[in-house]
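ARCHIVE CARD
SHELF: 3
SLOT: left
DATA:
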Amino acid sequence: MFAGFLAADSWKLSPGILRMYDMRPASFVHVEGFMTPDEIERDQPRVDLKAIGIGAHLCAAIPVPSGELVTIVFQRWLRDGPHDRRAVDGLDRLMPRFGRAGLMAARLGLTRANATVSALQLIGLPAAVLDRRGRVVASNALLETVGGQIMPAAFGALALPNAAANALLQHSLAQVGRPAAQRIGSIPIAAAEGYPAMVIHVLPLQGAAHDLFAGGDVVVAVTTVSASSLVPEASVLMGLFDLTPAEVKLASALTRGLSLKASADAAGVAVSTARAYLERIFAKTGVHQQSQLVALLKGAASFR
């Protein structure tokens, strides 16, 4: 049950946790002592923990040079009552060790972030690890080769010169941590002078992978597309543009040169349904006309 509590992410909105984040206590304090009775009552994560028998909380905070805040929390079963003064004093004596452990964990996360983008460079993918605010935690040298399509922005963030594509990127970053159905996984960018068409992939770090990165919440990777007369495989379309199997059938038929009606027949759906699929495909690929869609998808065939 406690693992489910951590996975739910609702604890990040806990009034108690937010209070500790603002206070940043350098030694252990009783969290409840800095909350009003009303705050304790409406602190849903705390209510959920109480339901499984967890009561008092002690907390201390350690800022680390990389910008993260390490919080150390000790909880007790309700049946054991609050932490006594002796327990608090004993934990305070261990603060130097907790501080070193927090610093090492943050440094290890940054090292892993750099290792990840370096590994992606070895297979030819420009990439960066970002936090949920869009700030770059680590990036590889290949990202500089697409500088005309991906630009640095204020406060260490990334931006796309195309306004529509940039809006999709910022929206996708804002959705990190939410259900997959609400996220945009791939963002197409049209070719520009000196740069081929490309697809930006936004890959949230989840579970154990997220725990290993210092402040990293998402990997952004770039794949390029080039002109081709081939029809891309279904797996390529699903991977690049997050198309569903039904959308892939329709898109593949259109790419073969069939009309919308013929494509609907080939996909085994009504024309009205095909039109609805087509609108969703347009939204996912960032194009507005069938001719643009066909050109983009034929370019994607180079990934086979």
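SLOT: right
DATA:
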Amino acid sequence: KAIDITGQRFGRLVAIEPISMRARGGHIFWLCECDCGVVKSVRSASLRGGRTRSCGCLQLEIVKVTGTKSKKDLEGNVFGRLVAIKPTKKRMTKSIVWLCECVCGNLAFVPSGQLVSGHTKSCGCLKKEVVAEMGRARRNLPDEAYILYPKEEKRIAVYLTDQYVKRMLTKHGIDNNQITPELIELKRLSIISHRELKKTKEVLNELL
């Protein structure tokens, strides 16, 4: 049974209420308010174990005063779609690189500075989703113009209209008057299966 920590203080954090998100292993997350006013989601075990004591502001203050980073201050903190699991021995631009788990299930190594600043919020899945949505809106195309590949909870959109495929073929040196419906379909299949254009030409030559 989950332990009720509502109203309890953990360093600079006060537990407000549990949220629906769960980490690997079913760990519960609590919505907490920091003394600085920031509201963060933190893993219950990290709060009760004393590993997370602030929203990240404490770490920044320690850096300013001592020039060193607190390795345990980020553990269990949620940064966008990422949960900080543990620090590693890696360093990037003088920042400790943390092993993080994304809500999509992927693991990512992210410098602490990028987590605290909000520069990195996912393993990369968020950017792909945003780019796909922007592309769809910019071209004002129906959903049928996209083939979606589910990978865990991610969806990668591949633009496969005839116009796009023709542009790809001309980019690789094929004249417009040489482009046939058969070649367009073969190129479309090569994009789906990640085959190179050379293989598409070989298949086309065999058909001809």
